[in-house]
Each structure stands twice: as structure tokens, then as C-alpha cells.
Amino acid sequence: MSLCKFLSSVVLALLIGAAGAHASPLTTLYSFCSKAQGTECLDGKAPASRLVEINGAFYGTASAGGSTQGGTLFRISAAGSFTLLHTFCPQTPCQDGAKPGHYLTRGPSGAVYGVTTDGGLNDGGTVFRTTGNGTFSVVYKFCSKPRCADGSQPVSILYDGQGSFIGTTAAGGSHGGGTVFTIGSGGVLRVLHNFCAKSGCADGAAPGPLMRARDGNFYGMTAAGGANHAGMIFRMTPAGAVTELYAFCGAKKCPDGSQPAGPLVEGRGGNLYGATTQQGANNHGTIFEMSPAGALHTVYSFCALSNCQDGATPIDGMVLAKDGSLYGTASSGGRFYNGSVFRLQGGKYSVVYNFCAQHGCFDGGTPGTSPIFGSDGLLYGVTETGGASGNYGTVYRAEP
């Protein structure tokens, strides 16, 4: 190792060590499988969704567990009062869906909307809605058209503020590479774009969630396809016209990363930030910044420290704080090898909290999605493992 690289590693270790020494306190609000019947976790297990706050309460999903093992939908207060709203797959086949996705959205009249990746018609997944009082209904069942022309395995939906939603499916569509669709609250769906229309899926396949930028366009990423078969970033107009902006793994050894995950987030200056799960300088993912025109550079490569003490393998995007800094999670690595919450401020990376700092990982481990900022300015999120009721995940609150 060169002296320059050695000194850089020492400085980075000191910075991250200092962040860990003054780590923001974390409170575990709820441990899943607190409500058990035999071997079944009635309240769910492995929560993996970003939370959504409505009127001071947080809504989320557990990807597994429940009385029928199809996952659950829940609400939790800032004080940790937990309410089970719905158990997926109460009947066979799972007409209401199973395995809820990682992203919820607030719709009209304070209702919460989301997707399931399985169940519904032909096991293509569903769009669902729950009202503030917990009334659950299915809005749409995917794979309703021949050869799943309407898409299958939905990823997320985003409310447009005018009564409709826009979302993506990871599979299905006219070329099998996934779709972008719009759907009204009444359940009428229209496909805007089909991925994998080009040879070798050079236009991308398996799209992730969308975000809407201040320029009025939607931006998203695909986990596969692209010119280098490592995923790509695209822009889409409200009318559905798609432009490919950047293909990952454009250089030898993929220093820019591959297999991007989660939604992009727009920074104060108008550039977009996101994460890749693989490759980068240390083969454990990256954080990148991209201009709306498609000029990209890597901001940080994970696993820069020995044993990946700075975190590894982010599998979600980031969230923007009021001061312009960005927060996210690494699903693995960290001081205790169970993931971490990190901050990117002024281009500088630091660890906010290392999971499994408590004996038995009672504080949680393996965060699959990023926390959100609550109305009180604190971070609220979930972990897929750890907790005081076994190894079934937690809901946590942390100071940024």
C-alpha cells in the first residue's frame, strides 16, 4: 500500500471512529414477533419498508410473518404504540397480495397506498389501499392481461397529487423487462413505458422506484440491462417519453458501481444522488451524484475500512435533510457487522449509528431501507433482523 493511500485510510478511520464515538442515540420503538402464536409472528417479521408518516403516526409493512406468512401492514406511534392493520394472504389464493413492497405513499384523504410483489391474479402482485381507520382494499391485480402485458411484480407507486399514481413493475410488460404505469384511485391502469425493448435490454430492465424532480420529470434506475448489463439511470417525461442518461459499469472493474437500488433523491443544487449495491472501488457498492443531463461521479465507495466498518451494500437510496445533508443505510458491514445509518454532508461520509451495538442485537440489524424524517425532525426506520423478541426486526428512532 502506498504511503498516500495508507494516510488516507488512517484519516478516514479517525473520522468515522469519531462519528461512532459521538454516535447519535437510537431508541428501539418496537421489536417484531412480540405477538406470537406458536411459531407464527402474528405482527409480522422482517420489516423492510420505508415508513410513511400521516398525522403523527407511521405506517409500514413487514415482508413476512403474520398469521398466514404473507406479511403485514402496521401503524406505529412515535411513542411505540403498535397497531396491526392487515395480514396479507388471509385466503388461498392470495387475492389481496403477499410480500408487500418496500415503499408506501400517501394518497387522497390521508389514505396509504402500496404494492405487493406476489399474490393477486396469476401471482403478479397488487396495488392496495388502507384508510386512516384501517379499512383495507385492493385497487389493482397485476398480470390481468395476456402475457402480463400490464406488468408483474410491482415495485412502488408514487402519488402525483392530482388523483393518480405512477409506478413501476420489475417484470412483465410487452418485452418482459418491466414497465412504468399510471393508475387512478379507481383502479384503471395504463402502461406508459415497456423496458427491454432494445436488443440485450440495452434500454434497461427491472426498474426500481421513481422520483419526481423539480423540473417536472421523473427519474429512476433499472437494476439490470443497460449498455453494460449493470443497470442504468433514465429520465421520463409525464407523458412517458424515456431518455437513457447513464449506464453503470462503463469502465474496467466498475468503479462507478453496478446494480443500482432504491429511488434517487434530488439535492439542494438540483443534482441527483443514489446508491449502487455492487462494485465500486471496494466491490461493496457506491454513493453517486449525477447531473440532470447524466454526468455522474462516484462520491463514496463502501467498505473503505478494514472489515467494512464504514458499512457495505446499500440496498436503498437516501433521504434529504433540511440542512441539505443526505441520510441512508448500509445493509451490512459497520462496526458490529449488522449494518449502519450514514450521513453524507458536503460530500463527506460519516457513520451515524452502527446496528447491533447492544447485546443480542436488541437495537436491530440489517436495515433494508433508509429511515425517513418525522415531523419532529428525528429519523424513523426499520431493520429486518435483531430486536428483543428474537431475530425478526425492529422499528427504531434515531437523532440525526
Brief overview:
By secondary structure, this protein is mainly beta. It has one helix spanning 3-21, and strands at 26-31, 36-37, 40-41, 45-47, 52-54, 57-64, 72-77, 82-87, 98-100, 105-106, 112-118, 126-130, 136-141, 152-159, 164-171, 179-184, 189-194, 205-207, 211-212, 218-224, 232-236, 242-247, 258-266, 272-278, 286-290, 296-301, 319-320, 326-330, 340-345, 348-354, 372-373, 379-383, 394-398.
List the helices and strands and how they pair.
Elements: H1 3-21, E1 26-31, E2 36-37, E3 40-41, E4 45-47, E5 52-54, E6 57-64, E7 72-77, E8 82-87, E9 98-100, E10 105-106, E11 112-118, E12 126-130, E13 136-141, E14 152-159, E15 164-171, E16 179-184, E17 189-194, E18 205-207, E19 211-212, E20 218-224, E21 232-236, E22 242-247, E23 258-266, E24 272-278, E25 286-290, E26 296-301, E27 319-320, E28 326-330, E29 340-345, E30 348-354, E31 372-373, E32 379-383, E33 394-398
Antiparallel strand pairs: 1-33, 2-3, 4-6, 5-6, 6-7, 7-8, 9-11, 10-11, 11-12, 12-13, 14-15, 15-16, 16-17, 18-20, 19-20, 20-21, 21-22, 23-24, 24-25, 25-26, 27-28, 28-29, 29-30, 31-32, 32-33
